[in-house]
Amino acid sequence: MPLPPAPAKRAAFLNTDGLAAAKAKSRTTRKVTLRHEPSALDEHMPTKGRPAPAPVLIKSEPMPAYKGERKTAPVRAATPKKKNAGPTKLFVLDTNVLMHDPMCLFRFEEHDVFLPMIVLEELDGHKKGMTEVARNARQTSRSLDALVASHNSDIITGIKLDGTGHIEVGGRLFFQTEPLDFTLPASLPQGKADNQILGVVEALRIKHAQREVVLVSKDINMRVKARALGLAAEDYQNDKTLEDGDLLYSGALALPEDFWLKHAKEVESWQSGSHTFYRLSGPLVPDLHINQFVYYEAPGEPSLYARVTEIRGHTVVLKTLKDFTHLKNAVWGVTTRNREQNFAMNLLTDPEIDFVTLTGTAGTGKTLMALAAGLTQVLDDRRYTEIIMTRATVSVGEDIGFLPGTEEEKMGPWMGALDDNLEVLAKTETSSGDWGRAATNDLIRSRIKIKSLNFMRGRTFLNKYLIIDEAQNLTPKQMKTLITRAGPGTKIICMGNLAQIDTPYLTEGSSGLTYAVDRFKGWPHGGHITLARGERSRLADFASEVL
Questions:
Q1: Kind and range of the H or E element at 57?
Q2: Are the C-beta atoms of 462 and 492 separated by less than 8 Å?
Q3: pLDDT at 321
């Protein structure tokens, strides 16, 4: 296509009649949008059965329409995008929810929250002291004060929960600002705080019949009474990492029997030292995580035990493992006895892995393997300076009272597992005689320090091998406090049995050990394995299955 001829006149002398005509033909348009102003508690009620709101006219700014300009959509009033298309609910919170999680006010997404006056009274009664409950009550009171201070209008209209920076929350906070009429059965004493909260829920259900009113409580009996009265009640679920303990990440995956048939043409392999690497792609890749173990076992075919070391797009790199079941690879005289123990020992002895979590039933060898790997890396490899061992001091039965002595002496009765496993490890050294074993025991004891959880705040561990035993009894907050103590060169091992939780307010889904396993899943410097088979004795294995 030929180019048009160049203009013969200067730009200042060009004819502007066409441009003036285009301006004369242009029109200004005004767009009108309808908007409804909601009111207080009925803001998110379903529209069915409600009178239609009066339309409000909103005039937009005039926009000139130039000739040849692309037409744009009319300007509309910006509305926040909701996560749920259905009507929002009104949640009435019990006091124990606020004292359990001070941030629970900001966990209900687009739904509204209602606090009865008796809840504020109970918060005020629990704010004194140094316990975890008292600290949570004070933090909740500070959050409520900040929300009220950020609200400029009348408190009756509701306080926006995003006023303090929590932009992901779309609901409002309502306080009980007037007496509510309710009728409860005569068998429920009116002076009890729980029954007053139930009365508030009943009154709100009648007052806002077109809206779902739900009581949220951590008290099981409170929820049972609410359901007996025909009221909706739910447990506070946000503190649970998983709904079912069976969904917990196991750290190992069995490859299908037709694995090599499907991936034979896509596999690349190479040798590096004593390890073999495989690069492959296929439908299995999206289900894998970094440092996850995979194994292939089929009758008549060679077995494969490998660990995922790299994931890039649709390809994954597998690295074969070191065989710790063989006596030549024994760690402090200890050899692994099953597949999962071999996986765990590969994690414990890898210097690139900074955080290891081990779960399993009683007698699976968690503490023994962690101590054996720690002693080898402290005394033989000099990778760490010492072993620090701690655990949650939660008793199985009734507490025996205060313990005498220093911090380490007070922790002594809680560290029976340490003494038992050190006795097993000391028997592995048989060539030095009694005097040599005694000297070895003294050396081991000098490199193992026992610390209490109560004095961990503010500490930093440098080049330490930290073992957290019975970690299933820790809360997520305590787990975070311990893991953040790690300094450069420190390795942390968390061990526990989720079937033996002794803390009264923890479950398998809300335990700090479950929280750590789920959050560190797929981190390049962390690993997890669930030990499946017990190796303590046939009696312990049978008891774990049938009792």
A1: strand 56-59
A2: no
A3: 95
pTM of the model: 0.69
Counting residues of the chain whose pLDDT is more than 70, the rounded percentage is 76
**Model pLDDT, residue 432:** 59
User: Which are the contacts of 40, defined by CB distance < 8 A and separation ≥ 6?
Assistant: 156, 157, 158, 174
More confident position, 29 or 385: 385
Opening angle at CA 419, ends 489 and 359, nearest 5:
60
Strand partners for 308: 318
Residue with tokens 């701690």, as numbered in its chain: 390
Q: What is the Cα–Cα distance from 230 to 341, expressed in whole angstroms? A: 51
Q: Residue 197's pLDDT is what?
A: 92
DSSP string, 152-168: -S-GGG-EEGGGGS-TT
- Identify the three-state secondary structure at position 364: coil
* Distance from C-alpha of 123 to C-alpha of 136, rounded to nearest angstrom: 9
175, HSE (Cβ side, Cα atoms, 13 Å): 14
* 79, pLDDT greater than 50: no
Neighbours of 443 (CB within 10 A): 12
Of these ranges, 77-91, 154-168, 362-376, the one predicted with the greatest mean pLDDT is 362-376
Say how far apart CA 441 and CA 447 lie, in whole Å. Answer: 10
Closest CA to 132 of 428, 478, 398, 466: 478
Which 3 state secondary structure label does DSSP give 433?
Answer: helix
> Is the confidence at residue 173, as pLDDT, over 60?
yes
SS3 296: strand
What letter would DSSP give residue 2? P
Average pLDDT over residues 322-332: 91
Strands (DSSP E) contained in 394-452 are 448-450
